[in-house]
Every structure is written in C-alpha cells, then in structure tokens.
TrEMBL record:
It comes from [Myrmecia] bisecta. It comes from the Eukaryota. Residues 79-316 form the Protein root UVB sensitive/RUS domain. Coiled coil: none annotated. This is Protein root UVB sensitive/RUS domain-containing protein. The lineage of its organism: Eukaryota, Viridiplantae, Chlorophyta, core chlorophytes, Trebouxiophyceae. Belongs to the RUS1 family.
C-alpha cells in the first residue's frame, strides 16, 4: 500500500512551508537533488520525493544526507533489494494484526523442526523396508508402502467427515491435540527399523495418526490466517505463509542431509542418529507449536471465549482484549465451559425439563425471549428454591445485558457468527 504525506504532519501529506523550502543536496559532480514537499510511505518506510533535474523519484533518506554519490546510490539499491526480499516473504506491517509477528516466528521454528523430523522418519521407513540393503524385496516393500498410505487416507476421510464442523469452534485446541497425536505417531515411524517384521502395523498406525494431524492442520490454517487479515488480504497472507514454509522446510532438509552425511560411513550411526535426535526434535517442535497457538488472538466467539469475556465483565465491568482471553484459554486441559461463575450449558429440551408443567411455566416466562433458562431436570425437590434464584439472575441479566452487548460490539470482538461445535449443535434444540 502506498500513501503520500501532505498537510501538517498529521494528515496524509506534508506541504512545503516557508520554514521548509525546496532544498538541494550536496551531489558532488552530479546535479543537486531538489526535495519535494511530498513523501512516499510504503510498508511503514518513508521515502521523500526529489527532483534530480530530469525526473521525480522517491529516494532513501540516506541519499539526502550523503548526496547523489556512488555510495549513496549503492545504499539506496541495497535497501530497495532488502525491502523487495522482505516483501516476498512477509506481509506489510499495516496489513496484519500485531499478533501475526509472534505467530510467524514460532511457526518458522515449528516448520524447521518438523522438516527434520519428517526426513528422518522417511529415512527410518526406508531402512525398515530394506531400501539400501543387499537383500531387498522390492515388491513386498512397495505393497507395504501402498497399504499404509491407503489406511492413512481413510483416517483423513474419517476426521474430515466427523469433525469438520467442530474445527471452527475450537481451532487451537484441535490443532494442539492432533499435534500431540502426530508426535506420537511419527515416533512409531522411527521405531520401524528396530521391528521390520511389524512394518505394516507400525507404519499404518503412524500414517493414520499423521494423516489426522495433517487434515486438522490444513483445515484450520485458513481460519487462523484470516484472523490476522486487516484488509481482506487473506490470499496475500497465505501466499506469504507458503513462501516462509518452503524456506524453513528447505533449511530443515539441509540440516537433515548434513547430519546424515556426517555419519555416512557408519551404518550403526545412521541407524541410531534419528532415535537419538527424536526427543530433541519432538520437544522443539511441540514447544514451538504451543507458543505458535498461544500467540494467536482469535476474534470470533465460541462458548468458552464468550464465558471468559462475560466473567471478566462481571468482575471488572470492562470487556477483555483478545490477548487477555487468548492467555486465559487453556490448551492442555478441557475447555473451561460451565466450570466458572457462569455455569450455563446449551442443552436439549428433554434434558432440561422434568414434566409438561415445567415446560408451560418456562414458555410463559420466556414468551418474549429467544431462549429458555432452566435449572435442569435433575434438580428435583430443590426446584422452587432454584427457580427463585434463576428468576432473580434472569431479571438482572435482562437489565444489564444491553450494556454488556453494547460494550462488546464496540470492542475488537466479532459477535457474529457465534461458533458451536458439532456436539453443541447436536445438543441445541430449536423450538418451533
């Protein structure tokens, strides 16, 4: 994005005044540069426009200080090249949210560890099926390889069909859980050279788990990348992410090839090196993924984030930031739904009512609402007392909910759509 500064410094352009006239620079044997009253702003970098006697162009500030010398032109070209390289791999600062940069750094570390892990895993599988050995059975190796890939595809199909609707509602937790699964399954691939007779079993189980992790990764990436976009520039962010991934995957490839080359003359070292490196690589990979996910500040609402926001508002009277909620969201434990001060659950009609009389009372009480509050069918004899407390809570909520919603709408949160998992959708009852 390019803009121009004019005006009084606070607007888009800065006009020339009597205190800031056109001024020539010391250009040595070249024609002096005449500074014009406008500047180009691109990617947060300001470059003043100058007239060099034949054309108007934007130059680096260093050129103005050093003049139109060979060194000044070299500095200008180097900075332009540096900006072009960065622009190929990173979006403009004003095009993404602030949390993008921490995410990008941790994702780069994750891709590096993951690349080395995958290469050593493939090496282990090839050793297990006998590739490189003097006595190998190509047909048997090929059949085993095809079978384990086929079972992996079935795993991907099952996950995509079963959990597709739940990914949006709980992006980070699904991604973390399947990362742990991926780590466990890739460890099985490292063990295949030790148990070559069980290659098909180990490799198939590993490939199913890895396929589940890959499906989750591919499915959640667009929603995560979209959370960083400020100007509907999702395609640009995803393209830059692919470029970054290729760079760090290739760096990981170079690291793995170098380590393999160093032990090329020792069959035992080639066998043991992946197993020795496995704990370090897995630890680094999971550490990077965890911090990568914690750095993402999702702006959409699911039930867990909505409860965290509401609890914070009840305690402080203010809407928490996306960073505060992201920090409070656990990845290692189950969702904090119905366990805080707001012990509310989305449930079905049959689970929340004791008898038809209760239904009649609720329909009368909530005839103007789009929901019904109930203490649940298991309350039993405590119904009158619980219902009185529920009525008082409902009256307070009706009186204060407009203020809460008004503050929420003015904040950085996106209140529509409200994301529900497939289980929450199944429990939700829409009454006609």
């Amino acid at each position: 994005m390019i803009s121009h500064r004019c005006g009084n410094g606070s607007g888009a352009c800065k006009k020339r005044t009597s205190e800031a006239p056109f001024r020539p620079t010391n250009a040595g044997c070249h024609a002096p540069l005449e500074v014009l009253p406008v500047a180009s702003v691109k990617g947060g970098r300001v470059k003043p426009y100058v007239w060099d006697g034949s054309a108007i162009r934007a130059v680096e500030p260093a050129v103005l200080h050093e003049g139109e010398t060979h060194h000044g032109r070299l500095v200008d070209h180097v900075k332009q090249l540096h900006a072009a390289v960065l622009g190929s791999f990173l979006p403009q600062n004003e095009d993404v949210t602030p949390d993008y940069w921490d995410y990008a750094r941790w994702r780069a570390a994750h891709r590096l560890f993951s690349s080395v892990l995958s290469i050593f895993a493939t090496q282990s599988l090839l050793q297990a099926v006998g590739v490189g050995a003097r006595k190998t059975l190509p047909a048997a190796a090929a059949i085993n390889w095809v079978l384990k890939d086929g079972l992996g595809r079935l795993g991907r199909l099952t996950v995509a069909a079963r959990f597709g609707q739940s990914f949006d509602a709980d992006l980070k937790r699904f991604r973390w859980a399947t990362s742990l699964l991926f780590a466990g399954c890739i460890s099985l691939e490292y063990l295949t050279p030790l148990f070559p007779h069980h290659f098909l079993l180990l490799a198939s189980v590993a490939n199913v788990g890895k396929s589940i992790g890959l499906t989750t990764y591919i499915s959640t990436q667009p929603a995560i990348q979209k959370s960083f976009a400020r100007h509907e520039n999702l395609a640009d962010i995803m393209a830059k992410a692919q470029a970054q991934q290729m760079v760090f995957d290739n760096i990981g490839l170079a690291v793995a090839v170098t380590l393999t080359y160093l032990v090329r003359n020792s069959p035992q070292a080639r066998m043991r090196m992946p197993l020795i490196a496995l704990p370090l690589l897995l630890g680094g990979d999971l550490f990077a993924i965890y911090h990568e996910l914690k750095s993402i500040h999702l702006r959409t609402l699911n039930k867990e984030r909505a409860e965290l926001i509401a609890e914070h508002w009840l305690q402080t009277g203010a809407i928490p930031s996306t960073k505060q909620v992201s920090k409070a969201e656990p990845l290692l434990t189950a969702p904090r739904v119905g366990r805080g001060q707001l012990r509310l659950q989305i449930t079905s009609l049959e689970e929340s009512l004791r008898d038809p009389d209760t239904l009649g009372l609720l329909l009368e009480r909530h005839r103007k609402d789009r929901y019904m509050n109930s203490t649940g069918a298991s309350i039993g004899a405590a119904w009158p007392c619980s219902q009185a407390a529920l009525d008082a809570s409902h009256a307070w909520a009706v009186a204060n909910a407009p203020r809460f919603l008004e503050q929420l709408q003015k904040s950085q949160w996106q209140i529509n759509p409200f994301l529900l998992s497939s289980l929450e959708r199944a429990a939700y009852t829409e009454l006609a």
